[in-house]
Design a protein that fits this description.
This is Beta-lactamase regulatory protein. Belongs to the glycosyltransferase 2 family. The chain is built from 13 helices and 10 strands. The chain is an alpha/beta fold. The strands form 2 sheets. The protein has a 7-stranded mixed beta sheet, with helices on both faces. Strand 2, helix 4 and strand 3 form a beta-alpha-beta unit. Helix 1 crosses helix 11. It is elongated and about 75 Å long.
């Protein structure tokens, strides 16, 4: 009876894993074909405002602002919202204002009660923005090409979409922690991009996101989300994005690359904040994510139990073949997704971190879900 029960759990989990890996995540990995890039005369391009909420980001801004000025776009402004910085950011921005014609700044000297810092900074930046098309990123992010503005805002400008959601990668560094970050970032993008391509968007990353100022003001900014630390990107999208008003920008020239965390403590704080925001997702969206994670866990636990308790070599063979098949399928899915998103396809570390994620997801997810207090900076 135990073997029959374990076998049923194992096969059921395998079916759900196949559905996700082939039909859902495969939408990005296997079946996505990039569309021809639209060629638009520069005079027809609507002006764009890039908004960056920055707190003590002097070193990053010193590198980023000159790079943004080189974007191949006819009309844009760079809005830096300086949130109570004490590291010389104010002096840097004052100096840069005389050098870079597209740069504008707003300084926050105090934070009103009952609002969260980053949402307040983004809201202030959007309110004073000259242009209706908004493009959001972070101070530690770098666009990989001069066509970033053009590509990321195209769905909002040309297709009249409310949201254009892009991919934000992390810089590659030596070490296990960085490989873990690379896996987690790609896996997260695989999930939200794939569901988005199936017209069921549920999140985005603020490192690479575009929408209209008029839409933001119409929805009264972060109304209903002010009390939650974080969520200026994923919770805002989760609340308002639909299959009709949202487009996903999948092009290696459209991505941004951020500076990764370099200590496990900092990385765990970041993940705790992300998982904390996740508990406010719509129920259907939590089920989408949770069902894959649960079937993933049950697949390996029940498979291992079958091998341990069974004394039938045929069961060993069947379970072993299915496990190897899933490992190879996961590798192919991640390889295809990475190639479409980044133009690269080396994902040899996938197999190791697929196992690691069994414990990490449930541990950090539970910790983030139960936490009552998280901070931006």
């Amino acid at each position: 009876m135990i073997i029959i029960g374990l076998g049923s759990v194992f096969l059921t989990a395998m079916v759900f894993q196949l559905i996700y890996l082939i039909f859902i995540y495969g939408r990005l990995a296997f079946f996505f074909r990039p569309a021809n890039k639209a060629i638009v005369v520069d005079l027809e391009m609507e002006p764009v405002t890039i908004i960056i909420a920055a707190r003590n980001e002097k070193e990053n801004l010193e590198k980023l602002i000159p790079l943004l000025e080189e974007q191949d776009y006819p009309s844009f402004e760079i809005m830096i919202v300086n949130d109570r910085s004490k590291d010389g950011t104010s002096e840097l921005l004052e100096n840069f204002m005389g050098r870079f014609r597209n740069l504008r700044t707003v300084t926050i000297t105090y934070l009103p009660r009952h609002v969260t810092a980053k949402k307040y900074a983004i809201t202030l930046g959007i309110k004073v923005a000259k242009n209706d098309v908004i493009l959001l990123t972070d101070a530690d992010c770098t666009p990989v090409s001069k066509n970033w503005i053009k590509l990321m805002t195209a769905p909002v400008r040309q297709q009249k979409k409310a949201f254009a959601i892009g991919y934000g990668a992390y810089r590659k560094l030596p070490g296990i922690l960085n490989k873990m970050i690379q896996f987690d970032t790609l896996f997260t993008a695989l999930q939200y991009m794939s569901f988005g391509l199936w017209k069921a968007p549920y999140m985005a990353v603020g490192r690479n996101l575009s929408y209209r100022k008029s839409f933001f003001m119409e929805k009264k900014a972060f109304n209903g989300l002010w009390h939650i630390e974080g969520g200026d990107d994923d919770l805002y999208i989760n609340k308002y994005a639909t299959g009709k008003n949202t487009s996903f920008v999948i092009d290696p020239e459209s991505i941004t690359v951020s500076e990764p965390k370099t200590t496990y403590q900092d990385y765990n704080k970041q993940k705790k904040r992300h998982y904390h925001a996740g508990k406010y997702y719509k129920t259907i969206d939590k089920l989408k994510i949770g069902l894959f994670a649960l079937s993933h866990l049950l697949f390996w636990l029940s498979g291992a139990a079958l091998i341990f308790f069974s004394q039938d070599w045929r069961i060993y063979v069947v379970v072993g073949i299915l496990m190897i098949f899933r490992i190879l399928l996961v590798y192919k899915v991640f390889r295809g997704a990475k190639e479409n998103l980044e133009g690269k396809n080396k994902v040899w570390w996938t197999i190791f971190f697929d196992f690691m994620y069994l414990g990490y997801f449930w541990f950090m997810g539970t910790k983030g879900y139960l936490s009552k207090e998280v901070k931006w900076k």
